Amino acid sequence: MHATDLRTDLAPDTDEYPVADLARVELVDVLKALVDPVRLQIVKVLASGEALNKSTTDWGCDLSRATMSHHFRILREVGLTRTFAEGRSHRVQLRRWDFEQRFPGLLDALITSA
Q1: Structure confidence by residue, pLDDT tens digits, 29-67
Q2: Domain count, the chain
Q3: Hey, which residues does 86 pair with through a beta bridge?
């Protein structure tokens, strides 16, 4: 998965960051992203399905904003999350339904087993 694989065909008035085309996402890239305990923790918090504020949510990690931004970017680039601006805040949401279509049962298995 490379940055060039990110979809940029979003509506011009959207405040959503580019998202990965899940048809081009490889399972090995997803597993590489989720082997990191911080990113797995973020996915667990997002498992509720809500779009959460990146800066005010308790992610269960005591890391700098820059480090958290790095982890959010990795998750977005492998297609696990979508990120969008809402006013002055940025929200992140698990792409559970889309991801389930591409890799059935994988998210639930990873979330419940860890």
Answers
A1: 999 999 999 999 999 999 988 999 998 889 988 899 999
A2: 1
A3: 89
Backbone CA torsion sign across 38, 91, 113, 107: negative
Residue 46: give its domain's CATH number: 1.10.10.10
Strand order in the sheet with 81-86: 52-53, 89-94, 81-86
For 59, the token pair is 């992610």
DSSP per-residue letters across the chain? --GGGEE--S-TT--BPPEE-GGG--HHHHHHHHTSHHHHHHHHHHTT---EETTTS--S----HHHHHHHHHHHHHTTSEEEEEETTEEEEEE-HHHHHHHSTTHHHHHHHH-
pTM recorded for the entire structure: 0.83
- Kindly report the backbone phi and psi dihedral angles of residue 86, in degrees, each rounded to the nearest multiple of 5, phi listed first: -135, 100
Joined together, the tokens standing for residue 49 give: 């399905």
Domain boundaries, position 13: 3-113
